[in-house]
Amino acid sequence: MLLREEAPADVEAIRRIVEHAFGRPEEAALVDALRDSGDTVLSLVAEEAGALVGHVLFSRMEAPMRALGLAPVAVMPGAQRRGVGGALIREGLARARQGGWEAVFVLGEPPYYERFGFTAAAASGFRSPYAGPYFMALALRGPELSPREGAVAYARPFAALG
């Protein structure tokens, strides 16, 4: 499996991956809106045998530190449960660290995201409409976030998801 940055020729394939993974077009529209707004920081694809099978996107967040939001992560149904999503997330986190980002926030299932080091406890001091057990954070510099409180907000296109 090859993990690489999104290329302009990948846009349609990414849209199909995200639509198939979520079973609806809203998340694919979010990816397009984040790309169009300039909020995308990392957009990675997974390629197997010349075909794209997965995608992950990290976008800028408003936060008291240099922070990214992880969303969405999508894998074609036929390629799910083979580690594609996990590989994309790990690669994205490594690139975020290399890029000097300090934190990543995610809204998702704790059992899945905790394996990458995300915790609800790390996000608990931050004000967000998504605050709660599914809103998690990961410090990329050191063992904990600094500061550990304040307001955080996803990029504006997320508001369209409702």
TrEMBL record:
Lineage of producing organism: Bacteria, Pseudomonadati, Myxococcota, Myxococcia, Myxococcales
Keyword terms, alphabetized: Transferase
Gene3D superfamilies reported for this sequence: 3.40.630.30
PROSITE patterns associated with the record: GNAT
InterPro entries: Acyl_CoA_acyltransferase (IPR016181), GNAT_dom (IPR000182)
Ranges where the N-acetyltransferase domain occurs: 1-141
This protein's record includes keyword Transferase: yes
GO MF annotation: an example: acyltransferase activity, transferring groups other than amino-acyl groups
Entry keyword annotation includes Hydrolase: no
Name this polypeptide is given: GCN5 family acetyltransferase
Pfam entry (one): Acetyltransf_9
